[in-house]
Write the structure tokens for this entry.
Amino acid sequence: MAIEVIKKAVKTPSTGEDDTARIVRDMLADIEQGGEDKAREYARKLDGWDGEIVITPEEIEAAIAQVPEQAKQDIQFSHQRVKAFAEAQLESMSEFETELSPGLFAGQRLIPVNTAGCYVPGGRYAHIASAIMSVTTAKVAGVKQVVACSPTHPDRGVHPAIIYAANLAGADTILSLGGVQGIAAMAFGLFTGHPADILVGPGNRFVAEAKRILYGRVGIDLFAGPTEILVIADDSADPEIVASDLAGQAEHGLDSPAWLVCTSRGMADRVIELMPKYIERLAEPNRSTAESSWRDYGEVVVTDTREEAVAVSDDYAPEHLEVHCDDLDWWLKHLSNYGSLFLGEETTVAYGDKCSGTNHILPTKGAARYTGGLSVSKFIKVLTWQRMTQESNRDVGAVTARISRSEGMEGHARTGDDRLYKYFPGEEFDLGL
């Protein structure tokens, strides 16, 4: 049994991030102090945008008119499936009440946050699907106020298809703001009067860092970095399809890792041989981006067994995980660390990214070891409650008093003592005195 790395990345997803935190922290402080005027100033400086920030209903209608009918139908197709999957997630959650011991009742409630801020990337690529993924899921969860924001282009503002998708998904407000200034506006409630309780959505390293810095003050979906793909392939895989999928994800960005784990050295060598062909067929600037991504961040590992392949994959904990192997049920059962899993050649990451139904806002940088992607549950607080009878205090009060005194917390113990004295006058209890 052996694991062999035949292509090693020369960079990691954290390469080049040293100055990001300082830049973002300064911008957030500037915008919090300067408010809407400072946010507008950054929009002018960074995006060349001098128009209105809040997109009006009339502007929404004008943008919708610019979206081709086929594009509208495609966006509707995606929205229907994302919405249906989110509704199924919501249905799987439940409130309950249970009697833990005689007279001691406890339960949980599911309460959506009041305001969600959804960031929709729109700079280099118009991430239409991100509007669907974030806004739709928030609305299905029952969020009252959903604010979406997206970067502008000097000649047209926010991409019309992003406006159409966000509006279709149910966004209450759409802001013409991108980058840190967009995240700050949603977090601080600028232009809407509704500070976000949670911030969600993918973005560049500055957007990700802004969310990280604000975490605690607001909730976030997850700590996101450059997009990732890992493909596991055995001898049954089609190397052409594997190479196509790796190249397809590598176009995301210069720092997007593409990883391949094979149980066959011949398969690994063939995919490596094919990668230049599948990168070359991309148009610029995607071609150069994919070339750099594969050169600097791509890795290929060969294992002797599928058990070793599972161990390697779980160690990477990739954002997107494709399995091009026989016996897919075995892989589904044994793999555990991934953002989203795509089983079989017929199921590619791009389907999940755009329209098949599962969410594409997913954990990166190994975060899949402890969290999944964006779901209805991210927008819902699971709150517990309890109710007790006087009789149930007989046991709970005494145990609480004794544990509290063992911890040295006399004030806690006395709250139990006082109830026992009130409800059961004249009785003696072992209170740990």
The domain at 20-221 is CATH 3.40.50.1980 (Rossmann fold).
